[in-house]
Amino acid sequence: MSNWIKAIFVFTIVVFTMSGWIFSPIQSKIDVLHYDLKFDLYPDESLLKGDAIITCLKLDKSAQDIMLNFYDNFKITELLLNDRKTEYSNTDNQLHIKYNGNEDTVKVEVIYEGTPKHVGLSGFVFGEINKKNIVYNLSEPDFASSWFPCNDIPTDKVLLDISITNDTSMVSVSNGILLETRTNNDRRTYHWRTRYPIATYLVCIYSADYVTFSDKYISQDRLDTLPIQYYVFANQLEKGRIDFEDHPKFIDFFARTFGEYPFIKEKYGVAEFLWQLGAMEHQTITGIGSNFITGKKYFNDVYVHELAHHWWGDAVSPADWKDIWLNEGFATYSEALYAEHVGGKKALQSVMLSKDKDEFKETLYDPGENLFSSTVYNKGSWVLHMLRRETGDSLFFQILRTYFAAYKYKNASTDDFKKICEFVSGKNFNKFFDQWVYKGTGKIELEFGWTVQKTSGSYNIRITTRQTQTGYDSYNFPLEFKFNIDSSTSILKTFFIDKRQNDFEITLKDMPHDIVPDPSNWLLADIKKK
Ligand SMILES: [Zn+2]
User: Fold this and answer.
1) 325-354 vs 414-425: helix axis angle to the nearest 10?
2) Average pLDDT, the chain
3) CA of 480 to the centre of ligand 1 (A)
4) Distance 143 CA to ligand 1 centre (A)
5) Residues contacting residue 430 through CB under 8 Å, at least 6 positions apart
6) Under 8 Å CB-to-CB from 236, ≥6 apart: which residues?
7) What is the pTM of this model?
8) 366: CB partners within 8 A, 6+ apart
């Protein structure tokens, strides 16, 4: 997700606080295999009629019930377990269904209706624009259960059939591929299906009076043609055509950098919705707020960010929400990688410098309730940038490709990623992850000073560094200095900082008139001359 409000020249990070998790340990006792979801939408009454068939494995044979997450504000008109009526309760947003049978595969069908609650950043929305209805959702992290019963955790990835019925004037879009449309009098059904597993927070509906246009991307092996489909409101058509036209280039770049686009047998798409704070990486069909379609390509970074989530978040999903930087830090660094691809090293540096402006009060791993803080996005991207400096480019991109290949269509934890870093590079990353991910907060604060002693024919330079930050006692990192001799000559030299206070010496033939720390901006650090 990108949660940016970016006016034309202003860039603001909005920090959202999330609370009210509804996770329960009992959820690990089932493994959902498939959701067959049918939704009848009546936007004028804000009414959702749902029929959810959930096929799951009961992992704990001794459990006396099946527990699903499901908000308790709906009227359940029928509930069947393996096609038979059974006892159930729906309180505290949990659906407990009595079951003490022996079969390990269980089919639950819930038929229900009501108006979904507004929860989280947006939830399920019956909205209106230009006097026309639009229905959409934004469920991250655990609000899919506000509109259908599910095991609402990112690790229970599933296959999905989703049918959306609305008035014939409405185009209804979802994840995966469109299997069929059926029209019955003034109602039309769109049946979408995924052939790749999907996490519940990425399941989506968009239903509006859309106009559509399309493009395509040819896979790296040239065997697949991926349709790229765009859905916008009629008054945005020309702007959308301009803004979205670089998507084949974006996909091509990430496919070459990380590995082939992971949903190559389905589609990529973008649908306009009314969440005006940003965009959401719903699997194969990103939602983009109307504000981010300008006809002037102001928001390529947002489009790139959401597309990159299809590798980082959608294909490789987090093992836990404590690992959310694996989604957001990676998608944010992907913006920098694309900028570098287009504009070179200077563009990379300028994007990274724009992302070091905060205090980063939380730890990167387990940021508590601040799942969408700038720590998760911006410090997350800086950690990848510094990892790249530690490993060098070829190992860094090999790490990303190996991590993607190992965990695509599955879930990965921060420790899984660390293990891949160590496996590929042959280096120990305990200290790096300790200081940047698990324990340290904030950034490096460093003072440095230098003195010169002239000896026969050379200059002996002594540099002292002192770490002054409070968020972590003593960071280890390589620190480059640039010794400017005159306007056309400079010398680069890297020292390894491994203590709160370090001293280094270097002998130069010429007297430097200036010393610049970290001249290529590889460190998340405030460095001051004493
Ligand atoms: Zn994001």
Assistant:
1) 70
2) 94
3) 31
4) 17
5) none
6) 272, 290, 293
7) 0.95
8) 322
